[in-house]
Amino acid sequence: MLTDRPLRELLTAFASPDPTPGGGSASAIASAIGASLLMMVAALPKTRNGSAEDRAALAAASGELVGVQQQLTEAVDADSVAYDAVVAAYKLPRASEPEQAARKSAVQHAMRSATDVPLGVIRLSVLALRQAGAVARHGHRPAASDIGVAIALLEAGARGARLNVEINVGSLTDGSYVAAVGAEVERLAAEAAQAAAAAHASLRSERLNF
Description:
By secondary structure, the protein is an all-alpha fold.
């Protein structure tokens, strides 16, 4: 599994000419690291004001982020598995009409799975960005740069996953599914931008330089 590899080995895998791991897994990693940084700040012994309100808000954010980070971590491997299935489907024989039909069905099924994984990464990135605002408002001031990096990584992960969704749906023939995915992607993109802007505003309100 990708997530079990040492970092240098993982980077070598990304640099190889093999189709996986690719941008989808990279996007999931970016967002997973972003969520992890938010969890780190939320777990620090010091908070913004040292108040019970700070600790409660950070505990709530951390509770939400645990599941998000775990699912993003799982998506790193899931994306590669899904795209490997796409590659395998395209390699199926097509000498006869039955083979062509079977191949077409397999490709469509694989492409849909390869779309669902990065779509899930966008959803999870938005959930993490929603918690970034609370961490920014209540987290320890000297950790503000970590929060800023977390927000940037989550935004990058969401944008990268969107690129994968958009290129994959171009190969799908189910018009209703394609339309539904397109509408959800637009909605999620707007939510991500709003949540990121709110989190950055919280940092700026504390007169932190970002």
